[in-house]
Amino acid sequence: MINSNKSKIWYGGDYNPEQWDKAVWDEDLRLFKLAGIDVVTLNVFGWAKNQPDEDTYDFGWLDEVMDKLDADGVGVCLGTSTAAHPAWMARKYPDVLQVDFNGHKRKFGGRHNFCPNSPTYRKYAVRMAEKLSERYKDHPSLLVWHINNEYGGAGTCYCDNCEAAFRQWLKERYGTLEALNHAWNTAFWSHIFYDWEDIVAPNALSEEWNAANGRMGTYFESISLDYMRFYSASILECFKLEAEAIKRYTPNIPVTTNLMGAFKKLDYHQWAKHMDVVSWDNYPGPDAPPSYPAMMHDLMRSLKDGQPFMLMEQTPSQVNYHPANSLKPPGAMRLRSYQAVARGADTVLFFQMRRSVGACEKFHGAVIEHAGHENTRVFRECAELGKELTALGDTLLDARFKAKVAILFDWNNWWAVEMTSGPTFALKYVDEVHKYYAALYRSGIAADMISVEADLSKYDVVIAPVMYMVKQGVADKLEQYTTNGGALITTYFSGIVNENDQVTLGGYPGELRKLLGIWAEEIDALPSGRHNRIILTEGESGGLKPEYECGMLCDLIHTEGAEVKAVYGDNFYRGMPALTVNKVGTGEAWYLATSPESAFLQDWISQVCASRGVIPVVPKAVEGVEATIRSKDGQDYLFVLNHNETPLTVDLGTLTGSNLLTGRPVLDGKIELAEYDVQIIKLT
Ligand code: GLA
Ligand code: ZN
Question: Which one from 150, 163, 242, 432 is the annotated catalytic residue?
Fold first, then answer.
């Protein structure tokens, strides 16, 4: 449990009373009660108010709000407010300001605007965390610490402090300049470094440019890669420093910071090790299919090995930063809230409680609209959900998500794949991973989204899409997993480089070659719109069609022990293997040499899963219906979500039980779901 002082699914979200006249506060509390809101996130952007100058701290408003909330039984997720520094700090200590990609020193403005290596920023951020924890350590409303906010949200800094810290970080990583020169292959383009001071931050003034298709361009991938590692670690250091200060006063209150799903800049696998509970903000783009936020929930849950996470933010209705900000239609907010719970969230929190009067978020959705009262569609829907979550009590808390399939996801690999020059700019790591995830999702098969450091032994199938970078020890680990009976699926553009983006020589896929029983001689990249075909050697069989389209990348592979399951249909390499499987121990290792149409992935992966005894959560996959199981003390809870705009009936096969909210039993193995409806079935 996140905090046993609040043993139900937490309900509420970001609350900014500091933006409002005191007169509004009591009205807020009245509305919270009506909506069943019992946890608010406070003080996320309160720094300027709390510390008007270098030596003055004034928490009067916060004391008052915390006490009022407590009197009403509302718990607090307390922000440390360090995501936007006060203006006086920027004026007096310009080292808190970032230097941007083009080398320009920024001025005060925006948020997430600090340099993570600024001594001034670190000093005052830690001091603020200390002041707050000392002050509120015994406050009964305090449930969890919310350090900073969406770390990494603004640009990357390239100031002199960052550059000096980068050199220090490199010294620790490589020890000697010889080792660094070797690791980076600096003989290329006359880059040999003679002195640590020769090394500069990679940005538009040195190695990088903003390339087409949203990619980073760099002349030296290994330098850019290390700067990304260093920068993620620099910001993490800020988090750790605040967390340490807090722990001195409140060792038993959990600390978190709100993550952002597949957020490129920060290696969340490193971050999660220092967080007591993972929390994250769910804002899927306007065209994202439901499988996308599902994948993000699974990624966030898997950061701490399946431990339930906090849904820290979502909008009750609309956001404000897309070209057109559509409303969530009636029922959709409830559906998306339960999607999070179905995948391991123990909180349902919103941004924000009340729409602000001015500045860029005034048109961002909120529980309390500008109308200011409870007679709105959004408020009514929020209040209905509030009632349900109260009724659920602690039933679902701490229940674990059940999955026998895992997808490997790796931030360093992501960075490397998308900065490398060639063979194609079309390859987008998260989109590519999502294709595999979506194949499972559409087949109704549950998956975890794990790191290469995770324990693989509990999974029957492990999928490693585009594992371009093979980190030390990973090849051995995958071999052991397969030898012991696991099924491994990996793909084109895997096994190419080591952790420093240096190619593993001797033929692709490098360290994975023996395990896969193949070698790839060349990699062909197809321009968009050009295709090849995958021709199944067995023809139509076991749910697979005789042929499918493929494209983007085509590896030209030779077998070295693997069995050929499909070949290319076109081009000068027609007839060469496109899909192979190698039997290793009691397991098998698959290699898919090209990026296929999604129908192939769904047909093929569900067949591999079925052959390893992995079956869908509910027997018949229905388009737009999502089903998951969370389990606690031997009791399984089935979540069935209808993402369709139309009602439908879902066949549960032999599963039976009763609706957790209504108590109604499942009749004839079937349940009816209205549009955007959700049912939670306590299985028997
Ligand atoms: C983020 C931030 C919030 C708010 C929302 C708006 O998640 O953490 O402060 O800006 O976005 O969607
Ligand atoms: Zn800096």
Answer: 150
C-alpha distances (whole Å) from 117 to each of 82, 155, 191 are 14, 14, 26
DSSP category for residue 197: G
Q: Give yes or no for residue 283 CB within 6 A of ligand 1.
A: yes
Find the ligand nearest to 103 CA. Answer: 2
Model confidence, pTM: 0.98
Residues 127, 148 within the same domain: yes
Q: Which residue has the tokens 């079935």?
A: 681
- Are 230 and 236 a contacting pair, CB within 8 Å? no
Measured from the Cα of 45, ligand 1's closest atom is: 9
- State the pLDDT confidence band at 198, using cuts at 50, 70 and 90: very high
Give the CATH number of the domain where residue 556 resides. 3.40.50.880
Host domain of residue 670: 625-683
**221, 313, 381, 499: the active-site residue:** 313
Give the residue carrying structure tokens 């006086």: 88
Bridge partners (DSSP) listed for residue 208: 218
Bridge partners of residue 210, in order along the sequence:
216
Look at residue 558 and tell me if it is in a domain: yes
User: Looking at the structure, do residues 524 and 415 belong to the same domain, yes or no?
Assistant: yes
Is 45 exposed, middle or buried (CB count within 10 Å of its CB: 0-12, 13-18, 19+)? middle
Residue 564 phi/psi, 5-degree rounding, is -90, 125
Distance of alpha carbon 216 from alpha carbon 214, whole angstroms: 7
Instruction: Tell me, yes or no, if 432 is annotated catalytic.
Output: no
Query: Nearest residue CA, atom 7 of ligand 1?
Result: 281
Query: From residue 645, how far is each of 236, 381, 641, 648 by CA, in Å?
Result: 42, 17, 12, 10
pLDDT band per the 50, 70, 90 thresholds, residue 620:
confident
Q: Could you read off the pLDDT of 536-565 as tens digits, one per residue?
A: 999 998 899 999 999 999 999 999 999 999
Ligand nearest to the CA of 159: 2
Ligand 1 atom nearest residue 44's Cα = 9
Q: Indicate if the pLDDT at residue 212 is higher than 90.
A: no
Residue 18 CA to ligand 2 center (angstroms) comes to 30
Ligand 1 centroid vs 332 CA: distance in angstroms? 19
